[in-house]
Write a structure and sequence with these properties.
The chain is α/β, with parallel strands linked by helices and 224 residues long. It is 32% helix and 18% strand. The protein has a seven-stranded parallel beta sheet, with helices on both faces. It has a two-stranded antiparallel sheet with strand order 3-4.
C-alpha cells in the first residue's frame, strides 16, 4: 500500500519537533515531507527573550525528508508577515501530496498553504497551541483572531490539540468535536536515557568543570 503523502508546513526548525518527524518517517502508513518556512533554529540565533545566542546540540534534520522554502519576509518577528513563502505553491504542486499539516494560523504562508490545500482538494490538518485568555479577546486584534481561528478550524478536516486548555479553546471557537484528536507535546525519552547512562558516575567531575564546590547546593531551572 502506498503511504499517505503528508506535507508538514513548519514555521521553523524546532528541536523538540524533529524527533516527531523522524518517528513519522518510520511509519509504514505516512510519508512526511517537512517544508520549513525559515532557517531559524538550524543556525545559531540571538534570542531577546533569554538574552542569549541559542545553538542546539542535537540532530535537527536527520531521519526525515525536508525542504527549506525561502522566506521573503523583511520582518521575521512580526504578526502575519513573519513568514512570506510564495514558493510554497511550487513545493505543494510538484510533490503531489495527499494532505497538508499546518502549524499555526498567524502567518501569510500558513494561510497560503491552507487555501492551496482547499483549492486542490487536499486534506487539511491543523495544529495550534491556542488557549483562552482570562480577559478574553478584546479590540480589533481579538476580533481578527476570532475570525481567523474560526475559519481555519471550520475548514480543516482534522484538528490536533496538545492539552485540555487547547481543546477547550478550539471548542470555544466553534470546532466540531468530531474533528479533534490529541497529539500531546512529547519528549525524546531515548535521548535523555542515553545522556543519563553517559553521565552517571561523573557527578564530581561535572561539578568541578562547572566550578561548583563540593559542598555547594545547586538548583537547576529548565525553561525560558
Amino acid at each position: 500500500m502506498e503511504r499517505y503523502r503528508l506535507a508538514v508546513v513548519a514555521q521553523q526548525v524546532v528541536q523538540y519537533h524533529s524527533p516527531l518527524y523522524r518517528e513519522l518517517a518510520k511509519s509504514e502508513q505516512i510519508r512526511p515531507t517537512v517544508l520549513f518556512l525559515d532557517r531559524a533554529g538550524v543556525e545559531p540565533v540571538f534570542s531577546k527573550i533569554i538574552n542569549q545566542t541559542v545553538s542546539w546540540d542535537v540532530p535537527l534534520l536527520e531521519g526525515f525528508e525536508y525542504e527549506f522554502v525561502r522566506n521573503w519576509s523583511p520582518a521575521r518577528q512580526r504578526f502575519m508577515v513573519s513568514r512570506i513563502n510564495p514558493e510554497l505553491v511550487r513545493c505543494l504542486t510538484r510533490r503531489r501530496f495527499d494532505g497538508v499539516l499546518i502549524q499555526g494560523y498567524d502567518t501569510v504562508s500558513a494561510w497560503l498553504a491552507y487555501w492551496l490545500a482547499k483549492a486542490w482538494g487536499l486534506d487539511v490538518l491543523f495544529r495550534g497551541e491556542t488557549v483562552l485568555k482570562p480577559e478574553g479577546d478584546k479590540g480589533f486584534s481579538g476580533w481578527l483572531k476570532r475570525r481567523m481561528v474560526r475559519t481555519i478550524l471550520q475548514g480543516s478536516d482534522v484538528v490536533l490539540y496538545s492539552c485540555s486548555g487547547n481543546r477547550r479553546a478550539f471548542l470555544h471557537y466553534g470546532c466540531d468535536e468530531g474533528k479533534l484528536f490529541a497529539i500531546p507535546c512529547a519528549v525524546d525519552n531515548e535521548l535523555f536515557r542515553g545522556q543519563r547512562r553517559e553521565f552517571t558516575g561523573q557527578r564530581e567531575q561535572l561539578r568541578g568543570e562547572l566550578g561548583i564546590g563540593a559542598r555547594e547546593c545547586v538548583f537547576i531551572f529548565t525553561g525560558r
